[in-house]
Records
---
Amino acid sequence: MEHVLASTVGAPQASGRPGQPVATGVCSSRKLGLDSSSGPAGGSPRPRPPARQGAAHRRLLLLLRRRSRCVPPTPLRPAPAAARASVFGRAKNPVATDPSRSWDFAPPLFPVAPPMGRTPSPIAWRQLWAARAVLVAALAALLLASQVIDPALQLAWTWLRGQPWYNSPFFETLQVPVVSFALYLGFNAVAAAWPEFDMRDESDQRAHGALAHQGRAVKEASWDFFSYVLPLLVLDTCTRKFYPGWVSRADWQSEPYFGWQTTRLLPEAGPTVFDLLFKPVAALLFYDAVFYFLHNAFHRVSALKGVHSVHHEHVKLSWTTTNQLTVVERVSLVLLANEALKLVQAHPLSRNVFVVLFLFALAEGHCNLDLPWGVDKLCPLYTGARAHVTHHDRFACNFAPFFAHMDALFGTSSQ
């Protein structure tokens, strides 16, 4: 084990050439609990192994560094910047376009941090736990005051049911582009106001910054309308949505399933505090668990790699990558989200809350912003942008889109 430590601090190798240090502040062998004076009988120094060091040596070195807690994990070098443009004008990831590099390629050493130019200072430990305590107290207060809040929610729901715009069969479909555009403006404003939180270096930000994506975003938004919104609008017009627990059996039998739909069959009972707080989160957990296996199959199964490869055709990750999907993948994600909402029997208003949370989580995971007050800092179970940036750089880790427990259980986490 001495040769591993010797190579890190610049000791000569077996070939006689001086070693190059890989990190500053590496712990000594004594601090790591190793006896560097021990050797073969007779006092002669322990023979060094050949100069070639494989993946096992690097894993051992990383383990020693992480266990010693003397050197923080250093970010890996970013992927090569050279890339080729597709026929649609999109810049492609060199790993995705090079036939010699497989989609399911697994690096010998998973990164401990995504490639980035600089790391923002985290918020203070006391402030973090204070914010968590405030959130838990707010949730507890809402649950305790549910007897007062639920009647108010019923009044608000009665008013919403009478509004033509909310009663329209197209409301849920049109909510997606409206919320996406609002998130686009919000993340661009944050990136412009706090560029120090961007996980790309300064040259990258100038070349692929928020302003550089605006023209491309308009083109992609037009394509998304025809490939995603327009087919769903046709389905909303021709088919009637029915979900368990929404309407009575008599209403279900009195209305034809196919036909020209002008209104939605909405229940008279309004949602409760529990419906708005926990059912959208439960649907996200179900979606995250199922999508983990689906996403893993997209990367591992040869027949499915073409379905997901478009999502990785980029040079640098940005929020516009969220909608960079094939039609097959987009439809599968929509169906999976609907099944998750059906499983928890979400109220129509809970579905609207789910759409906001779902789109925010997708955009936040692709925005390349490591915010010190982000959701991943407040909730340790949440992955955040750093984990998804690592997935887009290395492919073989962090398959779950929102939460970290699935990758931790199946050994595919980069942390």
Note: Residues 1-42, 66-121, 206-215 have pLDDT under 50 and may be disordered.
---
Amino acid sequence: MRDWVRYLSEEEVLDTENPFVQLLGGVVWLIRNGSIYINESLATECDKTQETGSFSKFVNVISARTAVGHDREGQVVLFHADGQTEQRGINLWEMAEFLLEQGVVNAINLDGGGSATFVLNGTLASYPSDHCQENMWRCPRRVSTVVCVREPRCQPPNCTGQCWQGKDCMELDCGLSHCSGHGLCTETGCRCKAGWTGSNCSEACTNGSFGANCAQKCHCQNGAACDPVYGTCTCPPGFTGDVCAQECPLGWHGPGCRSPCSCEHQCPCDPRTGNCSLSLSPAVTSLLSQVKQCFPSPKTTLRAGELSFFTGTTWLILTLTLVFLLLLSTAVNVALLCSSRVERNQRHLDGDYAYHPLQEMNGELTAEEEQQLGATHHPVKDRSLRLPIKVSPKDSCLRTPAAAGGIPRPRAWTRPSGHCASPVLLGDGHPQ
């Protein structure tokens, strides 16, 4: 079928010398040689071949659709989509996209899907859009065109059955290996898949070739393996890139350059084995020499780091020590100040005092007392004096009659020794 999907002229159709046995026509060539061909069909075909309306509407309206086509292997593909014009279904653009996804390389749109009835193995497989006499049922439309597709049988007189087997000559036979599972058995023998060759497709592509019939050349380098189907390179350990042309970057090794080196001082390793004892190429040695000049030696860097750390630590310790001493000095001064105040207050309240209670006296002084005190004082009558006065022996004393004139008081406050410092107020309100 793949050789006979094309436009025919009127002369070709009416040719009597080489007439067609069967012809199947449609409206709009959907797919041509693997590409959508709708726009070209709109410009080429006659719009009178359809009755939906304008040609553009016929293409874009949603409706039931039917198409026939074939894939790259020459197998016939029938397509049917249920629907009803302007209500449900698909347009021709959507149908063409779907057929492309299924691997169809040539396809034409048949009459509208509403005119078709799809029967598969004797069973109705479509949902007709026309109503029956009873509207609750749908009935197939009566049309005269029938497209029948079936497997080939050995009925024509020129069919020898070569390479076919089975009761209906439906099964191809390409020998015991049956193309080794890497090819397709055809009437002319095995047609190998990409990456395989030989009469029975048992040999993979070699000598750096790949693809269909091993016709394409591989470009892998450094002993990389070439995939016989797609030509992709599988790099050996130590190499990377699309064609395995680059060595692993410094510090990496192994398949795919995914393993880091573990050498001392961050030295590079062998990109293939990861061995740290290696003799580098002159180019790598020169590069490492140039890089080394840009960095200080590890010992110098370490000493500088230690010195910086030591200096910072020393200053921190000194600062903390001074702060601690300052706080300690402040605490000691505050404690001494509080202790001094407490001692002074305690000395005033609980000092070493001598208590001498005054006796009660009533009436006038005797003649002997008046003679001792002199006639300058007036007698005290009906006085009762009891003054519980505390006098510190260190700070105060009571004046005696010998020191100052006044009314004598027996057993008054006295200080064992020393001199009077301040007057003392007695019971009569006179300072003594």
Note: The longest strand covers residues 65-71.
---
Amino acid sequence: MSQALDTLRHEHDAILSTLKILRCMAERALQGNADAGDIAALLGFLQEFVDKCHHGKEEGLLFPALQRVGLAHQGELVGELIAEHEQGRALVGALRQASTPALDAEAFAAAAEAYAVFLERHIDKENDVLFPQGPSRRSARTSWRHCSRPSLTSSCRSSGKAGTKSCTTCCTAGRPTMPAEG
């Protein structure tokens, strides 16, 4: 299987682990035990890693590679996935709004669950519908070289935003870590 897809699937696993952390934070918020610093760090991770790093790879490398190899029939699915990335950004915005300047525990918990359910479905769609179609086509193999592991890693590191440097590290361990500040 393509190294590019292996990398993206590995990142999906890390993101799913992060959703467990988000749900735990939401439960703590409802119990009155939320830590504002932890919430801010997790929201930074969602914005920097999930959106800018991971979704950036899909939109900037994977989806164009699929189009180059003639998977035009996937255009509708790719368009749907890009629209879902936008929807995910809006849901992270709702999480941020519910947590700043003061935490609204109920709104945060509702937004956290909505985001987690949404992203789980989105990841399932990519893993189970889109990804199996890419590397199975022999003609796609040469084009997948554009989505090699170094390309994926450098696209993450090149964004220059706080926290993105940690995205490669968080995924190699198979579990999420909070992004480093600075």
Note: The CA atoms of residues 7 and 109 lie 30 Å apart.
